[in-house]
Amino acid sequence: MLEIERLSVSYGGLSALREVSLRVGAGEFIALVGPNGAGKTTLFKAISGTVAPASGRIRYEGRDLVSAAPSERAHLGIAHVPEGRQVFPSLTVLENLEMGAYAAAGRGGLERSLERIFALFPMLADRRRQLAGTLSGGEQQMLAIGRGIASLPRLLMLDEPSMGLAPTVADLIFERIAELHRDGGLTVLLVEQRVAEALQSCDKGYVLETGRIVLEGPRQALLADDRVRRAYLGM
Fold first, then answer.
1. Ramachandran region, residue 136 (left: φ > 0; alpha: ψ -120 to 50; beta: rest)
2. Distance from CA of residue 122 to its chain's centroid?
3. Distance, CA of 25 to CA of 155 (rounded, Å)
4. pTM for this one?
5. Judging by beta carbons within 10 Å of its beta carbon (0-12, 13-18, 19+), is residue 187 exposed, middle or buried?
6. Residues 65-107: tens digit of each pLDDT
7. Which residues of 67-92 are buried (b: 16+ CB within 10 A; e: fewer)?
């Protein structure tokens, strides 16, 4: 579904990504882990089109994504749930979800999407008329994920969904992401610093450090890797 080949991105002459290559197959759950500043968010921005690559290729369902305008990419079935949630605080929960359904696929399926979102996150149904800016951090994260789902994407990209959340709330978020993948067959690309939870949920993982992919493999292989266990799992 998504193929990235030798992708490099620079900011002001500094290299943020260096010849990164990865693949995401249809229906897969892929985790991308690594320390702060490794380039994980930059990779997502390159896929979404908010930063331009210096070199390399991004192909999505056989199409050259680099040549597509950022405004087109959501209509192609890509949903990006950004780091820090970034909900529209002055809009209600329902209005935020309606904004998510602006993409071509989502416009005709809003009612079905809302049923799915409210089944996943019942608290959003209870607060549908509440301003998003008055929600707790965990509720805002649920709303951000719901807004992504509202576009009826084929690829859901989640950037640090557990950031700043209490452990119990983060666990709930991970459970719902796994449910979306398991029950809905949704393709998921997850960036996450809670490495154990991310790797336990995924089919395959990549470890990104200082702008480069340093390890990749199926879930069990990465969980058993001594480097991963020492650096990220505290073992």
1. beta
2. 21
3. 10
4. 0.91
5. buried
6. 999 998 888 889 999 999 888 999 999 999 999 998 887 666 6
7. ebeeeebbbbbbbbbbbebebeeeeb
